[in-house]
Write a structure and sequence with these properties.
Rossmann fold, Dihydrodipicolinate Reductase, domain 2, 2 domains, six-stranded parallel β-sheet, about 35% helix
C-alpha cells in the first residue's frame, strides 16, 4: 500500500508542475550519447538527421560485437543512396564504459537501447548526473526496477531533465485511426467495459527472431535470449501493447496505479534448436543459457499474456514469438476495441497481405450507413486520402501508402516528439502518468506469473 500511495503523490507532483524551467535557447543543440547499443533500436534513432541534433554522436560500450554491429548500421545510413545521413561516431570501448561516459559527459541526451539487466540503474544514474534520457522499452523488467524507476522520475523533475521511452506503435497509421474512431460516437458509440472473459480491448503482437532490418538479416546478441538480461514475455514487447491500451482508450488522461487491477498473467516458452540459435546470433549457445537448454534445444520464456483493468475497462494483451515469419510475412499486430455501435478491428494476416488493415464492424442491426460515412468525412479532413470501402461485415478503412511509413521510420517520429519536449523542457503530465502506470502493469504481471 505504501508503494501505491507514493505513486499517487508522485503523479500529483508532476500534474501540478505547470511551470517548466527555462527552455533551451535556439543556439543549444542536442548532443547524443549512445551507451552499450546492444539492440538495433539504438541505431534506428539515427536513421535520419535532425536540425537540432549535433551530427557527432559519442558512443560508449564494451569492446564487443554489439558495438561493431551498431556502427555498421550507422555506416549503412551514411552510405545509402537515398538521403544519406552524415553522422560522425566518437567511440570509447572498455569495461569501464559507463563510468567513463558519466565522467566525460560528452553530450546531454543519453540513448539507451540494449541489455535490460542494468538499464534501470543506468537510467537512474544518468538522470542523477543531470542528463536527459531517451530509452528503448522496457525501462524496468521487475518490481525492484519499477520502484527505482519511480524514484528516477522524481529525480528527473528535481533536475529539470526529461526521461522518455520510445513508443513507436503510437505512430502506426491504423492504430492512430483506431484511436480517432473511438472518439466518433456516430460510428463507434461508447466504449464497452467488457469482462475478464470478454475484454473490451484485446491486442496481440506476433514477433519473429529471424527477421530483416534495413534490408539485412538481423543479428541478435546471444543475451537477447536470456530473460534475466532481456526480460520475459510479460515485460518486453507487452510494454507497447499496454501503452496502446492507455493511449487509445484514455487519450491524454491522467491515470494512476490506484485505477489499475492486474489479473491473471501467464508466461510460456518458444523453443529454438542450436542451429536456429546460430542462424540469428552467429554464435553457439553461451554458458549462461545452460539452465534453459535441454536436448540441444533452448526454451525462451518470451511469450506472455496480461489481463488487467483500468478503471472499469477490461483489457487483454498478449505477445507471441515465433522463429521465422511465413513467406512474405513479418511481425504482425491484431487489435479489437469494442464499442456499443461498432467494433474497431486491426487484422494483419495473409488476407491483408501481412499489412495492418483497420475494419469497422457494426454490432447493431440496421446501422445508418449514410450517417457513418458523413461522420467519417470529418476524419478525412484530418487525414486526406483515407476512405471507406464497404464489405459484408461493415467497412474497411482504406489508407494511402503515404501514411504507411513503416516501423523503422517510427523511431524518427518518436525522436522528433522527444525533441519537441526538449525544446519546451517539459512534457505533458499524462505522458509521465502513462509511463508509471504502464510499468506498474507489466512488472506486476511478471510478479504474478512467477
Amino acid at each position: 500500500m505504501k508503494l501505491r500511495i507514493s505513486v499517487l503523490l508522485l503523479v500529483t507532483a508532476f500534474a501540478c508542475n505547470k511551470t517548466p524551467k527555462q527552455p533551451p535557447s535556439d543556439n543549444d543543440r542536442i548532443r547524443l550519447v549512445t551507451v552499450d547499443p546492444g539492440h538495433f533500436h539504438a541505431a534506428l534513432v539515427q536513421k535520419n538527421m535532425y536540425p537540432l541534433v549535433d551530427s557527432t554522436v559519442h558512443v560508449y560500450a564494451p569492446d564487443a560485437n554489439d558495438v561493431d554491429l551498431h556502427l555498421k548500421r550507422i555506416e549503412g545510413f551514411n552510405t545509402r543512396a537515398d538521403n544519406p545521413t552524415k553522422w560522425k561516431s566518437e567511440v570509447y570501448r572498455g569495461s569501464d564504459f559507463w563510468d567513463k561516459m558519466l565522467s566525460d559527459k560528452s553530450g546531454n541526451v543519453v540513448v539507451l537501447a540494449g541489455n535490460n539487466q542494468k538499464k534501470t540503474e543506468y537510467i537512474n544514474q544518468a538522470i542523477n548526473a543531470g542528463m536527459h534520457v531517451l530509452a528503448d522499452k522496457p525501462m524496468a523488467i521487475d518490481r525492484d526496477g519499477y520502484k527505482l524507476l519511480l524514484k528516477t522520475f522524481e529525480r528527473s523533475k528535481e533536475n529539470g531533465v526529461l526521461l522518455y521511452d520510445i513508443m513507436t506503435e503510437r505512430y502506426e497509421i491504423t492504430s492512430i485511426l483506431q484511436r480517432e474512431l473511438t472518439q466518433i460516437p456516430e460510428i463507434f458509440g461508447e466504449m464497452e467495459k467488457g469482462s475478464p472473459e470478454h475484454p473490451a480491448i484485446t491486442k496481440e503482437s506476433v514477433h519473429h527472431f529471424y527477421k530483416y532490418v534495413s534490408g539485412n538479416v538481423l543479428v541478435r546478441p546471444p543475451w537477447f535470449f536470456d530473460v534475466e538480461q532481456e526480460g520475459n514475455g510479460l515485460v518486453d514487447v507487452t510494454t507497447h501493447l499496454v501503452d496502446l491500451v492507455q493511449w487509445q482508450c484514455f487519450p491524454e488522461q491522467l491515470l494512476d496505479t490506484l485505477d489499475i487491477e492486474v489479473g491473471k498473467s501467464s508466461l510460456w516458452a518458444t523453443k529454438l534448436s542450436s542451429h536456429q540459435f546460430k542462424d540469428v546470433t552467429n554464435s553457439p549457445f553461451p554458458d549462461y543459457l545452460a539452465k534453459a537448454i535441454e536436448n540441444d534445444t533452448l526454451s525462451v520464456n518470451c511469450n506472455g499474456e496480461i489481463n488487467f483493468k483500468i478503471k472499469d475497462l477490461h483489457a487483454r494483451v498478449s505477445v507471441i514469438w515465433d522463429y521465422k515469419a511465413p513467406e512474405g510475412g513479418g511481425d504482425t499486430h491484431f487489435s479489437t476495441i469494442r464499442g456499443t455501435k461498432a467494433n474497431l478491428i486491426i487484422r494483419q494476416g495473409k488476407e491483408q497481405d501481412f499489412k495492418p488493415v483497420l475494419y469497422i464492424e457494426p454490432v447493431v442491426q440496421n446501422i445508418d450507413g449514410e450517417s457513418v460515412i458523413e461522420a467519417f468525412d470529418a476524419l478525412v479532413k484530418k487525414y486526406p486520402g483515407i476512405a471507406l470501402k464497404e464489405n459484408p461485415n461493415g467497412w474497411e478503412v482504406m489508407v494511402p501508402n503515404e501514411y504507411r511509413v513503416g516501423h523503422e521510420a517510427h523511431f524518427s517520429q518518436v525522436t522528433e516528439k522527444f525533441i519537441e519536449f526538449w525544446k519546451q523542457n517539459s512534457m505533458p503530465a499524462w505522458e509521465l502518468n502513462n509511463m508509471i502506470s504502464k510499468y506498474y502493469i507489466t512488472t506486476m504481471a511478471s510478479e504474478l506469473a512467477k
